[in-house]
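Hey forum,

I'm writing up a methods section and want to include a predicted complex as supplementary material. The small molecule is adenosine-5'-diphosphate. I've pasted the protein sequence and the SMILES. Can someone with a working setup run it? I'll credit the forum in the acknowledgements.
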Amino acid sequence: MSARGLFITGTDTGVGKTVIACALVRSFAARGERVGVMKPVASGAQRTREGLRNDDALALLAAANVPLPYARVNPYCFEPAISPHIAAEDVRIDINPGTIATEYAAIASICDRVIVEGAGGWLAPIGARDSMADLARTLELPALLVVGLRLGCLNHAELSRRAIAAGGVAFAGWIANATGEPMEREAENLATLGRRLGGAPLAVVRHAPQAAATLRLDAAAAALAGRG
Ligand SMILES: Nc1ncnc2c1ncn2[C@@H]1O[C@H](COP(=O)(O)OP(=O)(O)O)[C@@H](O)[C@H]1O
Ligand SMILES: [Mg+2]
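Reply by user p_vandermeer:
Happy to help. Structure tokens for the complex are below, copy them as they are.
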């Protein structure tokens, strides 16, 4: 049987997609699942003897409990930390969602669950026309939205939620993440987000610099697993 997958998107870059994705990976693994990961498109990478390596892909691999070749987890990796579609054009590479789907299928075939982290936000471009949204649709994965709790997140969250629905992608829910100082009037903001996004968050994650590397989201993983 093939794995169940989840596409982690966010209201912006830097809102905690990697932190949340890794926490979910740890929690699904703690439930006894074989958990694989993907960061299909990454920009911002170091040159190593093995080739380019991106920190998000490495963090996801470190959290996962199924060993996977780097190139399968991160088939498109670009050195400069710029929009992937520009980085790809610079080196004359076409980011092909079909190629990503092939790698995803290989990972899914040996896992119970695959956590896929997008790059940037929902409509971040990966080519002349395609965006992260097209990738999630090609992979047929439900989208989980990480909302970075900061002024402006109500707008970004609802825009993302509407675009996910407009793209015909299933919505797996949302997780609020405090990437910095507590947001003013956080409780009211969370209540507003709940009304606008169609339900309470799967989790509200506090700002905890030391904990980010070991964070688990057991209740959120249980809720997601319980949906069958
Ligand atoms: N809840 C949190 N507490 C402390 N630091 C966090 C938290 N969430 C994210 N961060 C930090 O914020 C930065 C951006 O998070 P990251 O997960 O890399 O975002 P994204 O993947 O959306 O770009 C990272 O340095 C990360 O360690
Ligand atoms: Mg990330």
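Some notes you might quote in the supplement: DSSP finds nine helices and ten strands in the chain. The two ends are 14 Å apart (CA to CA).
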